[in-house]
UniProtKB/TrEMBL annotation, chain A:
SUPFAM superfamilies, A to Z: CO dehydrogenase flavoprotein C-terminal domain-like, FAD-binding/transporter-associated domain-like
Pfam families, alphabetized: CO_deh_flav_C, FAD_binding_5
Protein name: Carbon monoxide dehydrogenase
Organism: Pseudonocardia asaccharolytica DSM 44247 = NBRC 16224
Alphabetical keyword list: FAD, Flavoprotein, Oxidoreductase
TrEMBL record, chain B:
Keyword rRNA-binding: no
InterPro entries with a match to the protein in the record: Ald_Oxase/Xan_DH_a/b (IPR000674), Ald_Oxase/Xan_DH_a/b_sf (IPR036856), Ald_Oxase/xanthine_DH-like (IPR016208), AldOxase/xan_DH_MoCoBD1 (IPR008274), AldOxase/xan_DH_MoCoBD2 (IPR046867), AldOxase/xan_DH_Mopterin-bd_sf (IPR037165)
Protein name, as recorded: Aldehyde dehydrogenase
Keyword Oxidoreductase carried by entry: yes
Single GO MF annotation: oxidoreductase activity
Species assigned in the record: Pseudonocardia asaccharolytica DSM 44247 = NBRC 16224
Residue stretches making up the Aldehyde oxidase/xanthine dehydrogenase a/b hammerhead domain: 16-130
Chain segments annotated as transmembrane: none
Lineage top rank: taxon: Bacteria
Assigned keywords, A-Z: Molybdenum, Oxidoreductase
Gene3D superfamilies, sorted: Aldehyde oxidase/xanthine dehydrogenase, a/b hammerhead, Aldehyde oxidase/xanthine dehydrogenase, molybdopterin binding domain
Length: 297, 798, 172
């Protein structure tokens, strides 16, 4: 199990990366390598040109500005898991990061790499979709930003052009009254999620739900936006069993699950409902808690 | 030292990265092999074009079956028993391939990277054939048109057919209050030592000698096979098994690749090494356990089982395996009665070929399937009669006397009371309290279950019964160096069990010197005439026994020398703490050793100098083949255990959590409780994996879907709870009183867990008739019972 | 082929590598440091864990060229026969190893877990933080015990092995 031969470049600027990508459409970006290299080891991927972006310093930043979290593409999952700013501004991301693979994988795996890999069971994409994150990419024709929902195209494919590189992700910061949750089902700790849900519920000071954002992973070719299915929560002041059952079954209708080793499509619809029934009350309770302690986490 | 929790002598080298495993060996000029494997499950091989591969810079040689035929003899399973097909094959597939992963060609190159590059340049011309992956379809029992034949010359896909009857099952049915008829499915898993198998060979042309390093549990027997396949004289073949990264039975076989490397090494000038990568070990090594048991049980309404009749259908994959892939199934049928006194016992055994990798040994060697089925039967009878599962077991248990007890199939149980053992377990478990807690949990809507399993474990078999050669004995050399240091070499082969430590403990007890003065080695055919290796819980019994015997021989000679030096009779001499003494006279162990080599005038008249022996010991009792009635005692001795699992199941996700696992275990004299606990705990992890996580999956075309550790899931840190272990020690009749250990939890763990799962799912009407209890399987079983998964099912507290 | 400079277990090394060579293979094949084992080549078992600038990484998923000008610590740099590190002693005392094949990777990850423990390790935390390392022999509990023992022993001791250089030392 050894990779095929490739040429290796390690540029130090985004511009140089983009120009290599533009010049060679078989070139592949190497970020953390925790998804790409396993495929290369099996020779299921055999890029002839590898562009290592680990030395592009301008992609390695994490800052909070205007209440939002700005993540460079090279931020490692392990940083998200433990960084106090992430915990404060986007706590769901810290928890999502802790669910990605194993510690050694998180030590190397990057935000940009995970998004570019576009694995529909990836925790990060699911969480960022529930957070309405925005992705900035740079290509030969310049920079552009797009809602994360428009990044994912299908199983392991994105809408990026061949010469485009994910540079950063802007994550809207949490607000008082927002409760969050991410839950997944996997056979073992650290395994790919068979199904996962991430949700943010906003409660108004009176206690009513004013906004729901949610996404599901592992149950379609991309992370699936559950916003429409869960929309009926808005205006409700209490998460009754009947309501929960109703929105969970709505959600099971909007996903597009496939069958694999771990679950049939029908099975995934059922698992999603189990997860939602367990997850949504947790987000609701957090939201109520956030209101009562003035918006702190 | 026997019985003490001493830490291991072998640890320091492993802890510092100084272990030397196969892939760590770097003889000068080393070349690397890579193996081209069949991409399809069944095909006729029209041709293999290696031209481009040979032309790749860095490639030393490329061989196909055609290239090797004149340089090697065919392999064979050798097992000569009635009902078995003779079968020969070559290291590389010749006219046909019969499973995905079957070796077709080998490249030798400067590096593994280049060797794998060359594999991509080999062109295969294959005519694909229909594929059969299911035993019923392979037998033509599924109503479909006739199955494709793996070996056309057989006319069917039956590799082995046999049967046995004791007592009168039909009469038992006539007397019974009820008859259960079920099929129990044992799914396919793989032993998966973390280090895959492999070999490194070097042929010295001048001397005509082949040195083969191999990660193999039976280096001496491998040497015999290598000599056979390479047609080299036995004395010109030396096999060394270096440090081994696990074995678990998977490395008990003589793999095609090891023999391939041996043959290739004779054809290229430099040493050649090959190690299975993970995908190769998951698709091209032996796999295990897959059987279906059609079982009929005649029972009385009080829970007494009057008779059992079973048809064991073993899915052998392609039975192209040296020492036969039917071996484990022979033990399954032999051990099926378990700890229960079942007079009317009949079985049929059908070994069926399918387009999957060969079935082979894995920890327990057929016994996990036997234990699972009979323990499932006890609980199904409990269900059918309303008698508590513990009472069903009490009513069917082998009586406490007489001993030895002979089971229906001829096994000679030399064991203590099974009744007493189970009662100890139930007391420690507080069985009534566990049942009360279960009732309480059920009222709360939680799925909690309790499962029991009793175990009698065959130990120290005679290999002859499984490959019509080799045996059940063991050898060890014991040498006292002139300075009093002791060197022991044993024919067993440690794969992680800690033989260096336990043999040193045994020797230290006999010789009364510190363990630090005793070195133990193994795995080198140049250092010992023969040995049977390590498998079947035989190392403590046969290996420990022969070390005991050899060190006693040495001690006796040293005592005689000491007596002469002290001018007393031998009986007056005592040996303790490394000193021979008689009255006020004293002479140390080292002084006697010195005298034996360097002051031989001190020896008694006529005594030969030196302190060295090659001891051999046959524990005996285990039969080499069945008698005229088909009965065969498979073990020299038997270990026992009783186990209980308490589980809770998340009806939403199907996840099974083991709340507790308890075992009362008896392997006779305990050598080292620290290491024994490690065997119990580690064996339990494999038991848990076998039922809750692991599954080898092939699609209908025979393509493996579980070819990496991302797909084939073994237990991880968060999955395995601590086992509560209680060791009882009833010494066996064998030298040292050992019974053998290491497989108990692997054998009875799946049964206890499955019984607990069945118990937990009772309220949903689910019956467990399979070993595969992955969360997916549990969800499917719940659905099949007509229950819609409830999203409000209670989540488990962690 | 290109030449790379590494600081391996505190020793500067330069070695010619093909870009496709795993760090694990360069350590094993070129530098003779065979304590680092490969057991899955998919990042799923942790056996090949080494420290890259003090952080545990999987050396079967890292190309050696990526470690150019950086420091690498392997099991050979952790303790010696005469002077085992606390985690090494604890693994032996708890019988936290059998075949030993996973052990070097376990040790490298455990060093990081112990180093970041801050006195707050629980068995659950150890299981979580060690979850990327598979063992087929022990059934894990003895390893959990050993990590907790080592953490208790190391609580007042610097967690990074003495010979593991800082980033500054490497770049300087």
């Amino acid at each position: 199990m050894r990779p095929a031969r490739f040429d290796y470049l390690a540029p130090t600027s985004v511009a140089d990366v983009v120009s290599v990508l533009g010049a060679d459409d078989s070139a592949k970006v190497l970020a953390g390598g925790q998804s790409l290299v396993p495929l290369m080891n099996l020779r299921l991927a055999a890029p002839t040109q590898l562009v290592d972006i680990n030395q592009v310093a301008e992609l390695d930043f994490l800052r909070v500005a205007d209440g939002d979290l700005h993540l460079g593409a090279l931020i490692r999952h392990r940083r998200l898991e433990f960084d106090p700013e992430v915990a404060r501004v986007a706590p769901i991301l810290a928890e999502a990061a802790g669910l990605i693979g194993h510690p050694q994988v998180r030590n190397r795996g990057t935000v940009g790499g995970s998004l570019a890999h576009s694995d529909p069971s990836a925790e990060l994409g699911c969480a960022l979709l529930a957070l309405d994150a925005e992705v900035t990419v740079q290509g030969g024709t310049g920079r552009r930003s797009l809602p994360i929902a428009e990044l994912f195209d299908g199983f392991f494919t994105t809408t990026l052009e061949d010469d485009e590189l994910i540079c950063q992700v802007r994550v809207p910061g949490t607000v008082p009254g927002r409760g969050w949750v991410i839950q997944e089902y996997a056979p073992r700790a650290g395994d790919f999620a068979v199904a996962s849900v991430a949700a943010c519920i906003d409660l108004a000071p009176g206690g009513g739900c004013v906004r729901v954002r949610a996404a599901a992973g592992g149950v379609g070719p991309t992370p699936i936006d559950l916003g429409s299915a869960l929309g009926e929560l808005v205006g409700e002041t209490e998460l009754s069993e009947g309501l929960l059952r109703h929105v969970a079954s709505r959600a099971a209708e909007v996903i597009r699950p496939a069958a694999d080793l771990r679950a049939s499509a029908e099975d995934r619809r059922d698992l999603l409902q189990v997860l939602l029934v367990r997850a949504l009350p947790a987000a609701w309770t957090r939201a109520a808690g956030s209101l009562s302690n003035g918006g702190a986490r | 030292m026997i019985g003490e929790r001493v830490t291991r002598k072998e640890d320091v080298r492993f802890l510092t990265g100084a272990g030397r495993y196969l892939a760590d060996l770097r003889p000068a000029g080393l070349k690397h092999a890579a193996i081209l494997r069949s991409p399809v499950a069944h095909a006729r091989v029209n041709g293999i074009d290696t031209t481009a591969a040979k032309a790749l810079p860095g490639v030393v040689a490329v061989f196909t079956a055609a290239d090797l035929k004149e340089h090697s003899r065919p392999l064979s399973h050798r097992l000569a028993v009635p009902g078995i097909r003779p079968l020969e094959w070559y290291c590389l597939a010749d006219e046909k391939v019969r499973y995905v992963g079957e070796p077709l060609a080998v490249v030798v190159a400067e590096s593994r990277y280049v060797a794998e590059d060359a594999l991509e340049l080999i062109e295969l011309d294959l005519d694909e054939l229909d594929v059969v992956t299911d035993v019923r379809a392979s037998l033509g029992d599924d109503g479909e048109e006739s199955a494709p034949l793996l070996f056309e010359e057989w006319g069917d896909n039956v590799f082995y057919a046999g049967g046995f009857a004791n007592g009168d099952f039909d009469a038992a049915v006539a007397r019974a209050d009820g008859v259960l008829r079920e099929t129990i499915a044992h799914h396919r898993i793989v032993g998966l030592p973390l280090e895959g198998h492999g070999a490194c060979g070097h042929f010295d042309r001048t001397r005509g000698e082949l040195l083969l390093y191999s990660s193999n549990q039976q280096p001496h027997n491998l040497r015999t096979v290598v000599a056979d396949v390479t047609a080299l004289p036995l004395e010109k073949v030396r096999v060394i098994a270096p440090d081994m990264g696990g074995g678990f039975g998977n490395k008990q076989h003589f793999h095609r690749e090891e023999l391939l490397i041996a043959v290739v090494a004779t054809l290229v000038p430099d040493p050649v090494t090959w190690s299975a990568d993970r995908s190769e070990s998951l698709t091209g090594s032996v796999q295990s356990r897959q059987q279906e048991h059609d079982v009929e049980v005649a029972y009385r309404s009080d829970g007494r089982v009057l008779g059992v009749r079973t048809h064991v259908i073993a899915d052998l994959g392609s039975p192209t395996l040296y020492f036969s892939s039917i071996g484990p199934a022979l033990i399954t049928t032999s051990m099926l009665p378990g700890t229960y006194d079942i007079e009317a016992f009949e079985y049929r055994l059908t070994g069926v070929a399918t387009n999957k990798p060969p079935m082979g040994a894995y920890r327990g060697f057929g016994q996990p399937q036997a234990n699972f089925t009979i323990e499932r039967v006890m609980d199904l009878v409990a269900d059918a009669t309303g008698v508590d599962p513990a009472d069903v077991r009490r009513r069917n248990m082998v009586p406490d006397a007489p001993r030895p007890y002979f089971s229906a199939t001829g096994n000679r149980y030399d064991t203590p009371s099974f009744h007493e053992q189970m009662e100890v377990l139930l007391d420690e478990l507080d069985y009534p309290a566990v049942r009360r807690d279960q009732e309480e949990a059920r009222r709360e809507g939680r799925l909690v279950g309790v499962g029991l399993a009793n175990l009698v474990e065959c130990s120290t078999a005679n290999l002859f019964g499984f490959c019509s050669q080799f045996g059940g004995y063991e050898m060890a050399s014991v040498v006292v160096q002139p300075n009093g240091h002791v060197s022991i070499n044993c024919g067993t082969k440690s794969q992680g069990q800690g033989h260096q430590t336990i043999y040193a403990q045994i020797a230290a007890d006999v010789l009364t010197i510190p363990m630090s003065a005793i070195d133990v080695s193994d795995g080198d055919t140049a250092l010992l005439p023969h040995g049977m290796g390590t498998w079947g819980s035989r190392s403590a019994t046969a290996g420990g026994g022969v070390v005991l015997k050899g060190t006693r021989q040495i001690r006796d000679k040293m005592t005689a020398i000491a007596a002469h030096m002290l001018r007393v009779d031998g009986e007056e001499v005592e040996l303790s703490e490394g000193t021979f003494s008689a009255g006020a006279g004293r002479v140390t162990f080292a002084e006697v050793a010195h005298a034996a080599y360097l002051q031989t005038f001190l020896l008694p008249p006529g005594m030969d100098p030196g302190l060295a022996t090659i001891a051999s010991l046959d524990p005996g009792l285990a039969d080499p083949f069945p008698d005229a009635t088909g009965r065969m005692n498979a073990g020299s001795t038997f270990s026992t255990a009783a186990a209980a699992a308490v589980v809770e199941i998340d009806a939403g996700t199907g996840q099974v959590v083991i709340r507790s696992f308890r075992i009362v275990h008896d392997c006779g004299t305990v050598i080292n409780p620290l290491l024994l606990d490690g065997q119990i705990q580690g064996g339990f992890a494999q038991a848990l994996g076998a039922v809750l996580l692991e599954e080898v999956v092939h699609d209908a075309q025979g393509q493996p879907l579980t070819s990496t550790l991302l797909d084939y899931l073994i237990p991880s840190f968060s999955d395995v709870p601590r086992v509560h272990t209680h060791h009882r020690e009833h010494p066996s009749e064998l030298l040292g009183g050992f019974r053998g250990a290491g497989e108990a939890t692997t054998i009875c763990g799946p049964s206890a867990i499955a019984n607990a799962v069945h118990d937990a799912l009772g309220p949903l009407g689910v019956r467990v008739l399979q070993t595969n209890l992955s969360s997916r399987s549990i969800r499917e079983m719940i659905r099949s019972a007509g229950v819609k998964p409830d999203p409000f099912a209670r989540a488990l507290a962690s | 082929m290109r030449e790379i400079a590494l600081l391996v277990n505190g020793e500067p090394v330069s070695v010619e590598v093909d870009p496709r060579e795993h760090l694990a293979d360069v350590l094993r094949d070129r530098l003779g440091l065979t304590g680092t084992h490969k057991a899955c080549e998919q990042g799923a078992c942790g056996a090949c864990t080494v420290h890259l600038d003090g952080t545990p990484v999987l050396s079967c998923l890292l190309f050696a060229v990526q470690a150019d000008n950086r420091s690498v610590t392997t099991v050979e740099g952790v303790g010696t026969t005469e002077d085992l590190a606390p985690i090494q002693r604890a693994l032996s005392e708890r019988h936290g190893l059998q075949c030993g094949f996973c052990t070097p990777g376990m040790i490298m990850q455990a060093l990081d877990v112990v180093g970041r423990a801050n006195g707050g390790l629980t068995p659950e935390r150890v299981r979580h933080e060690m979850s990327g390392n598979l063992c087929r022999c022990t059934g894990y509990v003895s390893i959990v015990d050993a990590v907790l023992d080592a953490a208790a022993e190391s609580s007042s001791v610097a967690a990074v092995p003495d010979n593991e250089p800082t980033q500054a030392e490497v770049s300087g």
